């Protein structure tokens, strides 16, 4: 039931379908717009019930597709509490006249930090050495040289997707003394670093970091062919989307020594099944984090503030961060 409010005659019924995705981040910025109902998680089957009387839906991962929009007839706005919008059928929303907003740029610092963290761990084998403290007493000199340790300075980082995050990572890598190149594409424009064609890019880089959106062109861009072009000493980092990587091919490449290591913050299926191909104990030098590159306390606060600003703009009849 709608009640009198600040923005127009009525306040809205706002439903956050998966509030657990932002942890303990305060949501008071959303309360001013209406009656806020939060759910820690929501299955697809539960979505239509929870959105039945909702006018403004907020989702991070819960899918809102054409079928859902057809039965949730009160929906007036969908706010994606993220940058990526693959959890919403944008074309169906456009046809239904439901605007969809996302929040961009809120996690740039955190994703940059996470990416560089992967680079540092992989190049120093810090994660392996720190995890084997039981062996320290066995070394008469304490220092252990069981795993290769290499300098990042002087090495080449290749970036796929030179948007806001890609550029931020590039600057940080340059600060570590790395050379930075980007993968060329058909609509490439001049940028802060050289763009290389596919084969040269994959064969010359000492590390490759993925920051491109998931599209039909980029899906599975990391596969047996491109992994086979890489140096055996090279690292792969993915803080973008899981589907950018063919996980079967990556598992084989790591086992066979085709590349030296990988750091992943995303997987094709999240959460992954227990028998996921990359979770096997026989996969060497692979670091997987559970999609946390974006999730610093500061990033989550900026995210909720961004959602609130999107709702406020909508209620004022303004367009802000519309993606459809």
Secondary structure: elements and pairs:
Elements (H helix, E strand, L loop, with lengths): L11 E5 L11 H4 L2 E5 L5 H7 L5 E4 L6 H6 L5 E4 L9 H7 L3 E2 L6 H17 L1 H5 L25 E5 L3 H12 L3 E5 L11 E2 L1 H7 L2 E4 L13 H6 L5 E4 L8 H10 L4 E4 L21 E3 L8 H19 L9
Helix pairs in contact: 5-7
Main beta sheet: 7 strands, parallel
Uncertain stretches of 5 or more adjacent residues: none
CATH class of the largest domain: Alpha Beta
Q: Percentage of helical residues?
A: 25-40%
The number of domains is 2
Give a verbal description of the structure.
This protein is of the alpha/beta class and 324 residues long. The protein folds into 2 domains: 12-106 and 297-315, Rossmann fold (3-Layer(aba) Sandwich); 108-288, Rossmann fold. Helices cover 31% and strands 15% of the residues. The protein contains 11 helices and 12 strands. The protein has helices at 28-31, 44-50, 66-71, 90-96, 108-124, 126-130, 164-175, 198-204, 224-229, 247-256, 297-315; strands at 12-16, 34-38, 56-59, 77-80, 100-101, 156-160, 179-183, 195-196, 207-210, 235-238, 261-264, 286-288. A 7-stranded parallel β-sheet has the order 8-7-6-9-10-11-12. The chain has a 5-stranded parallel β-sheet with strand order 2-1-3-4-5. Helix 7 (164-175) links the parallel strand 6 and strand 7. Helix 5 crosses helix 7 (164-175). The longest helix has 19 residues, at 297-315. It is globular, with a radius of gyration of 22 Å. The protein starts with 11 loop residues before the first strand and ends in a 9-residue tail after the last helix.
């Amino acid at each position: 039931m709608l009640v009198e409010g600040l923005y127009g005659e009525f306040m809205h019924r706002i439903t956050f379908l998966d509030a657990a995705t932002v942890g303990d981040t305060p949501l008071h910025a959303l309360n001013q717009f209406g009656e806020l109902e939060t759910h820690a998680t929501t299955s697809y089957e539960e979505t239509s019930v929870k959105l039945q009387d909702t006018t403004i839906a907020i989702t991070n991962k819960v899918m809102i597709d054409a079928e859902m929009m057809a039965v949730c007839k009160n929906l007036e706005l969908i706010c994606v509490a993220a940058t990526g919008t693959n959890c919403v059928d944008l074309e169906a929303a456009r046809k239904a006249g439901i605007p969809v907003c996302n929040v961009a740029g809120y996690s740039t610092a955190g994703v940059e930090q996470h990416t560089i963290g992967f680079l540092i761990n992989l190049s120093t084998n810090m994660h392996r050495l720190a995890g084997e403290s039981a062996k320290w007493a066995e070394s008469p000199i304490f220092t252990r040289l069981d795993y290769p340790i290499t300098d990042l300075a002087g090495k080449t980082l290749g970036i796929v997707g030179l948007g806001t995050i890609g550029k931020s990572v590039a600057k940080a890598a340059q600060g570590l003394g790395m050379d930075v190149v980007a993968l060329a594409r058909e609509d490439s424009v001049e940028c802060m670093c050289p763009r290389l064609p596919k084969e040269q890019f994959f064969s010359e880089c000492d590390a490759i970091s993925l920051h491109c959106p998931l599209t039909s062109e980029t899906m599975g861009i990391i596969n047996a062919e491109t992994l086979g072009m890489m140096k055996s000493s090279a690292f792969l980092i993915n803080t973008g989307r899981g589907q950018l990587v063919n996980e079967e091919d990556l598992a084989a490449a790591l086992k066979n020594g085709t590349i030296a290591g990988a750091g992943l913050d995303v997987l094709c299926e999240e959460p992954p099944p227990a028998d996921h191909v990359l979770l096997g104990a026989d996969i060497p030098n692979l670091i997987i984090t559970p999609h946390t590159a974006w999730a610093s306390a500061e990033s989550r606060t900026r995210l909720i503030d961004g959602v609130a600003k999107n709702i406020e703009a909508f209620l004022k009849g303004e367009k802000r961060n519309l993606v459809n």
